Amino acid sequence: MYAAVDLGSNSFRFSIGKHDGDAIRVLKSVREPIRLAAGLDAAGNLTPDAMQRALACLAGFRDTLKGYDLEAVRVVATSTMRQARNIATFLPQAEQAIGYPIEIISGEEEGRLIYMGVANALDQPTERRLVVDIGGGSTELILGRGLDIERVESFTVGSVRQSLAFFINGAVDAPSFQAAILSARSIFEDGAPPYQPQFWKRAYGSSGTIRAIADVIEKNNLGKGLTPASLEALKNRLIELGHVSRIDMPGLRPDRAGTIVGGLAILIGVMHELGIGQIEPVEAGLRMGVMWDLYLRSTRRDRRDESVRAFLQKFNVDTARGGRVADDALVLLEQLKPSSDACARLLYWSAQLHELGMAVSQTGYHKHTSYIIENADLPGFTTRDQRTMSRLALGQKGNLRKIGEFLADGDFARAVVALRLAIVFMHARVEVADAAPKLRMKNKIELELRRGWATEHPTLMYWLEKEQEAWDEVDIDLTVRTGS
To answer: What is the pLDDT of residues 205-218, one digit of tens each?
Structure first.
């Protein structure tokens, strides 16, 4: 069983599912309307009240998740946590409350996971489709065919923000709707051309907002399906009611009334701007995509491997050199006995990409590699993953003072040792796989070389002397000796 926890701008949710044949069957879902986006103050900070609501919810989620025998749990946070200025203060408290790491994913990664959930639910391997997801703080547009994503963009407009910005104090009138729709259209207009109908056969709406709008239209006989005409009919009905407190319609939960107006304005805006005639709501999205991602990782079909391969090809990196360093780095790391295997894969990918920056400059390429890894759009990787890999890449050569503050993390320090020595052995043409040196690290680094290596590989001791100097600068002793 897998658990996917979605910390959205409007609601916190989790789903527990089990892979069954060609599908993931959802066993339990929980939703709490936290409205985190409404808890941002004028300075962009989460208010104490919003943080307390969120922490209480996460503690409750933790208690529920404990009751299941879960193979893997993944917690992802979206737009509001991406933007909160005091997230560094809140995030450790949130992780402690739920008991799992929280990944603040980019809008593009959010879109990719949404599409993964939708595509696997539809099971139409050749269909060209557009997926629209309107969240509390952002809206994602994803274009794809079957399981393959061709284009994804995230736009900073969501139902909570649009509702708060244009329907002041809950008042609903025609001028407010017109302003909210025009605002949404202005955000989508520059990005619209690649998503227009000539590039897809069907359009799907994956968010709770779109599904809620579809339910209200159906149960109040306002039209057939999600079309511009039915959305206009719902807009007019809401204007007649005049205030969100008076929105009491079949198919709409009371906690959604405050954000349905903003979500409807965005949906009208995106349909007009992209020329969409009809959107089909689909019961799949981010959480289903997260569970599929966990399942694929468990079967060693990790899309992060695909991202790295694509990057190596894009930047014309020497894959043989990168692969050799990656393999050797893992051999060395295993000897250092890290406390967990969490950084092993990040080390492996960092090693594969370690010469990426040579596409920019042969001098100081490690700095360019570090910058590209941290700032690139790498599908499957979280911001935290990329930051760790960026630091590893930065620490692959030269002085270690630039990453000195991070060496206090024992596992990170071990990964740096493994990466730097693997690169040294590659430069000196030492075949580590044939007879790995002995490597230990506690209060100091101890390296025992195979007898004869210093003679067989004339530059080896030169490289290792430079390593000793680098580690001395951060007060860590590197001892090198030859085995008997």
So the answer is: 998 899 999 999 99
